[in-house]
């Protein structure tokens, strides 16, 4: 009974703080420093080097958006006509599978084509199974992927 009373007592505070944390106005430090009517004042003390490290981390992530994930490599080759063949493989994948995203890269001397933005290796294996009919030499690779769409 006491546990239920405590949960009911703290539920409004917990729900309010979780909703406030999801606002896009800024980082957590900006949100904590902002005045809230009827609430106390938060003072953040941190070493200068820590603040600089966090700032550098945010700047680095802003330059390279995305997250670590998996894709299915459908083409990897080098040679005289590798660029043309990579474009053919990319076009083939995009026409056969609606909504699939394809990415062509040149990592000297190889031209590579990868498809999908999978967060887990399992998702990538499922996608690979769908692609095996057209691309029997495809395989799963670890790459930096785009963020999944928000609903």
Structure notes:
- The longest helix has 20 residues, at 2-21.
- The chain is 45% helix and 22% strand.
- The relative contact order is 0.14.
- It contains five helices and four strands; from the N terminus they run αααβαββαβ.
- It has helices at 2-21, 28-33, 48-63, 82-96, 121-131; strands spanning 67-77, 102-107, 110-118, 139-145.
- It has 151 residues and is α+β, with helices and mostly antiparallel strands.
- It is elongated and about 65 Å long.
- Strand 2 and strand 3 (110-118) form a beta hairpin.
- The protein has a four-stranded antiparallel sheet with strand order 2-3-1-4, with helices on one face.
Descriptive tags:
151 residues; alpha+beta; 4-stranded antiparallel beta sheet; 4 strands
Quick structural gist:
The chain is an alpha+beta fold and 151 residues long. The chain has helices at 2-21, 28-33, 48-63, 82-96, 121-131, and strands at residues 67-77, 102-107, 110-118, 139-145.
Helix and strand topology:
Blueprint: H1 2-21, H2 28-33, H3 48-63, E1 67-77, H4 82-96, E2 102-107, E3 110-118, H5 121-131, E4 139-145
Antiparallel strand pairs: 1-3, 1-4, 2-3
Global mean pLDDT = 83
Question: What distance lies between the first and last C-alpha atoms, to the nearest angstrom?
Answer: 38 Å
Order of secondary-structure elements: HHHEHEEHE
| SS-derived structural category | alpha+beta
- Helix tally equals 5
Largest sheet, order of strands side by side?
Answer: 2-3-1-4
Task: Outline the biggest β-sheet.
Answer: 4 strands, antiparallel
The proportion of strand residues reads 15-25%
Share of residues in helices: 40-55%
What is the number of beta strands?
4
Radius of gyration over all CA atoms, rounded? 24 Å
- Described by the principal axes of the CA atoms, the overall outline is elongated
């Amino acid at each position: 009974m006491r546990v239920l009373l405590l949960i009911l007592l703290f539920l409004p505070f917990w729900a309010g703080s979780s909703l406030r944390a999801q606002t896009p106005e800024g980082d957590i430090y900006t949100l904590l420093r902002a005045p809230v009517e009827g609430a106390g004042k938060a003072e953040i003390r941190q070493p200068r080097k820590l603040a600089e490290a966090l700032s550098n981390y945010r700047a680095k992530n802003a330059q390279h958006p995305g997250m670590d994930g998996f894709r299915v490599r459908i083409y990897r080759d080098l040679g005289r006509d590798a660029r043309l063949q990579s474009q053919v493989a990319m076009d083939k994948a995009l026409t056969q599978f609606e909504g699939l995203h394809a990415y062509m890269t040149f990592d000297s001397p190889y031209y590579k084509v990868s498809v999908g933005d999978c967060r887990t290796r399992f998702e990538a294996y499922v996608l690979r199974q769908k692609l095996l009919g057209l691309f029997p030499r495809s395989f799963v690779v670890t790459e930096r992927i785009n963020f999944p769409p928000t609903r």
